[in-house]
Each structure stands twice: as structure tokens, then as C-alpha cells.
Model the fold of this input.
Amino acid sequence: MRQIGWEPTVMPCNVPEEFDPAKSPAENAGDLALKKAKCVSTQVKEGVIIGADTIVVLNGEMLGKPTDSEDAVRMLQMLGGRTHTVYTGIGLVDMPSGRDLVDVEATQVTFREIPEDEIREYVSGGSPLDKAGAYGIQDDYGAVFVTRIQGCYYNVVGLPLARLYMRMREFQEDM
Done:
């Protein structure tokens, strides 16, 4: 957010990142983002709270953060040589009015085939354990898995800046 001139205050919130199988990946990402923003809004008297959540989807299976190193290895083995979709939900909540907005960005990402030794080396560094789909495109090593992106790079990082910026402008104009 600093890249676009905003100075955010980061306030973590303990929202379980659980998926509703009856909902689409986009709906799940949007719902979780809004839940995070609403959770933080209880601690803020004035301002716009931004929540975000990212989900990686391969062949209809929603991948959140891995539960452990072996789960991260499993996810990366699944993604290798395939194209998946990254969904990031954005939830905005205005305080004190409580007015909210939800939007979702989707980006297609293609991985090269990844040898198991590279996967295990990447996972052993710990970085993929707190990332949806067990990788960070912004990581030194995670970046070498990606051969193609169709859509917003920043969405894959975890916050689609252009979409967030435009929605924030619209949100504030409507106040």
C-alpha cells in the first residue's frame, strides 16, 4: 500500500480461514476479506478498514495456507506444470457508518514442472507455510516456479493494488 502512497496501520485479526464448499472460490475470498475487515472495525472508531484474503484454486480445489511442510510439498507438487487461478478478495468497511464493499480479483498463473528437490528446498526455508497455495511469487525462490501470468501480478502477491485503489476511490466518493 505504501507503493501507492498510503500509510496503513496493520491490525491483525483472528478470523479462521475456512472455506464454505457451497460457495465459489471468489465468494469465499470475498467473504473472508470482509470478515477480516469487520473484525478489525470493532477496534477502530474512524477510517476505512481494508481486509484481504487470497485463495489458490486448481481444478476446483481451493488451496489456502498449508497446514505443515508436507502439506506445502503436496500443494506445490499439484501446481507444478499446471495453470491455476489466484483469487484475492478485498473487503472495505467504513467506520463509524459500517458501510461495506467487497470485490474480488482473479489471475491465472502457470507453473513449470518443479523437481521434488527444488520443492523441498523451498519449503525447508519456511516461506511457503504462511501463503495460500504454498508459494509467494515475490519470494526469490517462489518466483522461479512461475512461467506465465495472465492478469494482475499484485493479486498473486496478495493485494491487487489497481483494483483496491479504484474501489477505494469509488467507496470514498459515495460517502
About this structure: The first helix runs from residue 25 to 41. The mean pLDDT is 93. The beta strands are 47-58, 61-63, 83-95, 100-111, 146-150.
